[in-house]
Design brief:
The protein is α/β, with parallel strands linked by helices and about 350 residues long. Helices cover about 40% and strands about 10% of the residues. It has two domains: about 40 residues, no CATH class; about 280 residues, 2-enoyl-CoA Hydratase, Chain A, domain 1 (Alpha-Beta Complex), CATH 3.90.226.10.
Amino acid sequence: MMRTIVQRPKLTMANNSKSEYLMSLFDWFASQPKSKPIRQEHQKRELVNGLWHRCSACKTLVYRKELQNNQMVCFECGHHERINSNQRIRQLIDADTWIPLDEELHPTDPLEFCDRKAYSTRIEEAQDKTGLVDAVQTGFGQVEGLPIALGVMDFHFMGGSMGSVVGEKLTRLIERATHKHYPLVIVCASGGARMQEGILSLMQMAKISGALEHHYQANLLYIPILTHPTLGGVTASFAMLGDIILAEPKAMIGFAGRRVIEQTLREKLPDDFQTAEDLLRHGFIDAIVPRTQLKKTLAQLISLHQLPPNISYLPKWESSEVHQIKVELKVESEDCVKTQIPSKLTPTKASIDQLKLGA
């Protein structure tokens, strides 16, 4: 059986005297160079260079500058990315009003603790990695013109663990806030007490709580802000002693870890166990505030609880006032050195040996 072959008609150019074959539309598209797919290496390189950020919750790629402008909160799912203490201070405190306190306090290794690494080595690595002296920054500042005493814990420094320096800096901050009649705000982000300092770290729970009691007796406001995560000895002490307790959405808040509780109770816990939403339902916290609204909420609470009804805002500090506060703090620091207060912070090896012997 013979097959008939039908030839396609020849297409000619109208303005050309010679007949020319014109390619069909299909052939034209087929001849075009295909766009090369974006290689995975190129995508990784852009992520590494910091142009884009992948949300750790919904995995959406977000332009990093836009994410930073939104205070590291995902546009798609509202997930709050973990931030360091410097970012937190910039988000909460008015520009050019931050006055850091007790930057001269450095951690030591009185127990000469060593696990896989020496504790002193871990401190040096954490300091090199974060640029911080220890896991908390304290200072005075203003929130929309309102003066406050602020402490910000940093989870990036050894998991925000509470050691002797953290306890001492927070205690001094609370005492100064009480003396100056400032409202107190502490941003909590910690895994608990620092195991490398043993009983010395656990003592900080009672010391900070005692200072907070004096602050309370002076009828002054204290607002802890619980961020992801807030656990262990921090939760068991100053994180839950506030007049108004705020938390960020979906923050993990608790004492023992979820796995430990499940193994102890031999029960499966709910999916939202130890989240801020779960604690709000059970009355452990007062409100869940998104990070983008936190500064405004703080200003409203402070103005409502601290100021007379006819005054809504205090005047902003002038440069001379900031300088005067720094001079006063320098004098206080020199007095502490003269009276050897820091020596009480980190006991000597001889005093620890005496404790071991029961002296």
